[in-house]
Amino acid sequence: MKHFFKTTLLLFLAVATFYSCGSKETEDIIEEVEEGFVATIDDEINFFIWRGLNTFYLWQEDVPDLSDDKFRVDENTINLTDLYRFFRKYNSPEQTFDGLLYRKGDIDRFSWIVDDFVALENSFQGISTSNGMEFGLVQNRDGSNNVFGYVRYVVANSSAAENGVSRGMYFNTVNGTNITTTNFRDLLFGSATSYTIGLADYNGGNPTSNGNSINLTKTELQENPVAVAETLNEGGKKIGYLMYNQFSASFDSQMNAAFAKFKADNVNELIVDLRYNGGGSVRSAVYLGSMITGQFNGQVYSRQRWNSKVTAEFSAESFINNFTNRIRNTDGDGNVIVDENINSLNLEKVYFIVSDNTASASELVINALNAYIDVSIVGTTTVGKQVGSITLYDSEDLQRNGNRLNTKHAYAMQPLVLEIVNKNNENDIDGYTPVVDIPGVEITEDFGNLGQLGSTSDPLLNATVNLITNSAKGNIETKNNIRLKELYNSAIAKPMKDNMYIDLGDLQLK
C-alpha cells in the first residue's frame, strides 16, 4: 500500500519514508514556502483535503484544481505558499472540500467531510449518540409549514424503549414548540441531550396534539441492524422475513445467525426489508448476497470502477467482489475477529422491501442478485446511489494508522472514489422502481397506518406476502388514500447516513 503513495503522493511529502518490497527508501521533496509566511491549522487541513482528493477522488481528472501540476514548480518541488493562499479564499475546510467536488449536488451528490472522525467511525459500527427513537418527519397535508414526526422503530435498551415509545406514534411539538419546516433541525438535531416530544393523533395527515408527552435522553447506543428475523407461515409457504437497517461489519455474525434460523425453519421464500437501510459496508453486502444464494460461490458479485491513478497501481482483482461461503473479518490491526461459514439458503428468488431511503449497499445487493436470480421489489423508487467511498485521514498514507497522523485536528473525508456495477456492468443512477425497473409492487408507506414490523399488519410486508402467495399484482392494493412526502429523517442526521464504503486495505498492489 505504501508504495502506491510513493508514486502518487511523492509530490507532497517533504521527507517521506516508504517501505517497498521489504526495503527502506527515502525521497526528499522540496517544498517552497515564502519567507515569513505562517501556515495555520486550516492550511494544513486544506492540504490534506487537496492531496486526498487528488489521489483517490473518482472525478479527479475532471476537476482542474485537482490537477497534479496545479501547485508544482518542477518535478521535485511544490509551492506550498501558492497552495495555502489559493485555498484561503474559502472560509472553512468544509467550503474547501465542497469547492473541489465535481458538480456538487448534480454529479457528486454524496461526498462529505467531518470534523470528528471518531463519531464517523462509531457510526459505521452502528454507534451514535441517540435516544433510540428512529423517526421520519413529514410536512402537514394542509400545506402549512407545520411538520409532524412518525416513529419508524425503537432501538432496544434506549431511552425511547424505556419510556414506551413505539412504532406508529406521532409527535408535533418539541419542548412545547410546534415543529415546522424551519425549526426541526434545531429542535431535534441540536446539541441538547434531552427533549420532550408532544404526542399527537394522526388526523388525516394534519396531526393534533392529544395532551400526552414523553421526555427522551440521548446516550451512546449501538444499534443491532438485524432488527427483525421471523419466519411467517402464509398460504402454505414458509417465508423468512429479515428487517436489516445497516450494512455493519460489527453485526455480520448476527446476520449469519438469522440465516441459520431461516435454514432451521426450512424457509422456501425470503423477504429482506431494506426500506430504512441507507447502506454501509460493501463486504457485508457481499455476505448478505451469499447468504441468500450460495450456489454461486466464487463467481463475480460486483465490479468497482476507480480513477486512473488507482487502477494503475492495484491489481485488477482488487476491484472485483466475488460471492463467498465464509465470513472473515479483521480489526484495524489485522486480527481476525469473525471467521465462520456462511449459512446460505440457495434461493432462486428473493423479495426486497424498498423505499426512497434505500441506498448504496442496499441497492448493490438488489443489483448484484438481479444478474443471477429472480428479484422482486415492493415499495417506492430507491435513491440511486451506485457509488462508494473510503475514509481518508490526515496522515502520511491517508489512513487511520498511518505515520504522522495529524493530531491537531480530527477532520476526515468520505469522498466518492468508486462506481459499482453488477457482473453485467449494469447499475441505475436513477434508482430502482418497482414494476418499471424490477418486477414487484409499487406502494408507499402509509404514515397513517404503519402496522407492526414483522407482521402482515404492516401494509408493505402484507403486499409482499400477497405477491408471494397469490403471484398476482391485481390482488394487492397499491395506492394509498393519502400520499405524503417525507421531509427528513433521523438516519440522515447520522454521520453514516446513506454511505457505501470499502476498507482501503482490501486493495492489493500489482
Provide a descriptive summary of the structure in words:
With 510 residues, this protein is α+β, with helices and mostly antiparallel strands. The protein has twelve helices and 31 strands. Strands 8, 9, 10, 11, 12, 13 and 30 form a seven-stranded antiparallel sheet that branches. The protein has a six-stranded mixed sheet with strand order 15-16-17-23-24-29, sandwiched between helices. A four-stranded antiparallel sheet has the order 20-19-28-25. Helix 2 crosses helix 3, helix 8 runs parallel beside helix 9 and helix 9 packs parallel to helix 11.
Per-chain topology:
Blueprint: H1 2-8, E1 15-20, E2 23-28, E3 30-32, H2 41-56, E4 72-74, E5 77-79, H3 80-87, H4 93-99, E6 112-114, H5 117-124, E7 127-130, E8 133-139, E9 147-154, H6 159-162, E10 170-174, E11 177-178, H7 184-189, E12 194-201, E13 208-217, E14 219-222, E15 226-234, E16 237-244, H8 252-264, E17 269-273, E18 280-281, H9 282-292, E19 300-305, H10 308-313, E20 320-322, E21 326-330, E22 336-341, E23 349-354, H11 361-370, E24 374-379, E25 387-389, E26 392-393, E27 412-414, E28 416-421, E29 440-442, H12 459-470, E30 486-489, E31 500-501
Parallel strand pairs: 3-5, 16-17, 17-23, 18-31, 23-24, 24-29
Antiparallel strand pairs: 1-2, 4-5, 6-27, 7-14, 8-9, 8-30, 9-10, 10-11, 10-12, 12-13, 15-16, 19-20, 19-28, 21-22, 25-28, 26-27
